[in-house]
Amino acid sequence: MSFILGLTGGIGSGKSAASQWFETQGINVVDADVVAREVVEIGQPALEQIQHTFGDWVLNADGSLNRRALREHIFQHPSARHQLEQITHPAIRQSIMQQLQDAHSPYVILVSPLLFETDQHQLTNRTLLIDASEAIQIERASQRDGQDSEQIKKIIAAQMPREQKRQMADDIVMNDGHLDHLYQQLATLHHHYLERS
Fold first, then answer.
1. 25, 190 contact by CB (below 8 A)
2. Three-state SS for 110?
3. How many angstroms separate the CA atoms of 178 and 103, rounded?
4. Which of 107-111, 176-180, 183-187 has the lowest mean pLDDT?
5. pTM for the complete prediction?
6. Measuring CA to CA, which of 28, 34, 51, 170 is 20 to 30 A from 72?
7. Domains plus CATH for the chain?
């Protein structure tokens, strides 16, 4: 198995811009958000378990997961989140590990917004945090998602505090400026990671 870099960052930090840059350098990227969607697609065991646990109402007419209904249910019944995570987290972890093993670039990146929260950083050799001030996070996320700043503040509040992430990360890139500045910082790290792998 090659050298695995864990890449994380809060909402609006520029995590996606960073992972896309690494991909242009020929580095394989495994995205935990994408995997999380894949494991609950039609025909996947996790979707059947979710239906079995919560009932048929979690499915749309076409048999796909009704994310909105499930999200609202979890919001009203906090204990349901734990039930859901017990189904999805092992499936997500297993799929991530398989994809990391199948990677063929000099090193491979695991992108996850909850890298530290879900202990996915334990799958990695090193971690990189893309960081930005809260004001910039709010500005970027509201432009991108069209959400109001109050909603975004709630999302930020629900995530692990920035300071805690900064203490846990091996490498930190501040993404408060222009994309060119971000790419310059990433290029330097990319060379280090190539040396390590």
1. yes
2. strand
3. 30
4. 176-180
5. 0.89
6. 34
7. 1-27+106-197 (3.40.50.300), 35-104 (3.40.50.300)
